Automatic annotation (TrEMBL):
This is SnoaL-like polyketide cyclase. SUPFAM superfamilies: NTF2-like (SSF54427). InterPro entries: Cyclase_SnoaL-like, NTF2-like_dom_sf. It comes from Roseibium denhamense. Pfam families: SnoaL.
Amino acid sequence: MTDFRNAPHTFLNTLWHVDEDRQGALFKDHLQEDVVFDVAHPVNRLEGRDAVREGFYAPMRQALAHVRRRDEIFIGGPNRREPGGHWVASVTHYAGNFEKPLFGIQPSNHLVFLRSGEFYRIEPDGRISEAKIIIDLLDLMRQAGRFPLPQMLGTEMLFPGPATHDGVLPEMQGDGEKTLDLCEAMLADLKAFDPETFTSKGQTGKDGYWHDDMLWYGPGGIGSNYRWSGFEKDHRAAFLTAFPDRVGGNHYCRIGDGNYAAVSGWPSMTMTHKGDYLGVPATNKALTLRVMDFYRCAGGKIMENWVLLDYLQLFSQMGRDLISEQA
């Protein structure tokens, strides 16, 4: 049986290496004519093959000279959530020299690694009909020396690949459905928390979901952290103080593949801005948040978690235009 992951993986990596004529032919072969891409703010929705090419791929190639894609995770599986179907998902970086503005962000004229989380629905004919993409433009601002927010809560760093170096088209691993079961159970219990300690049922300890040495890789604005204590200190406490009524898990896609799982919502989270957050005083506005989570599990524990959040869209809801500010 043909592995449905292979064709989109080859396509998504090859198209950056070819000239425009060959790229157009690849789009016809691998994207449905009425394909829809939802991309992080300020790109947002692109409808149709031509709009996707001109609204996402062309600006990326123009801004990031000699851009290349470097996958850290690339997995696929049947989607447990509506609308179902088979999906692939990836954590990747777009590496190139940042020589021209990208979506309003001014260039650095130096090498950048633009991190991206991506979900693609693959139709029975092998072509992509739908995509959701969160490119971390806030971290790109940081790399260009134009970061518009206070210092990150956690550690600023390039997203590492999995510690096991086996996240791209994994084979001969554990049962992806069981991996996803573990992550879904964790998410179900994570929703409720103690407002004094910010802890949630079953997350840590001998019978907890997370390994004691868990690593949590966060997006621009938050940064990364180590162990549950670091996660609480460098992300969870600040986030739940600002958004204490947050409700997450409104996902359009949940897949498992070997030791990996990926989930995403567009938006995933609804909440009210009730406390100061990253330099923005409470607005009491109702907000939504687009979210992508990628997990590596082993021995019945979550070992690593890569997180992409559309923070430019979140902050625009709070009245901050971070692109205008960095310019």
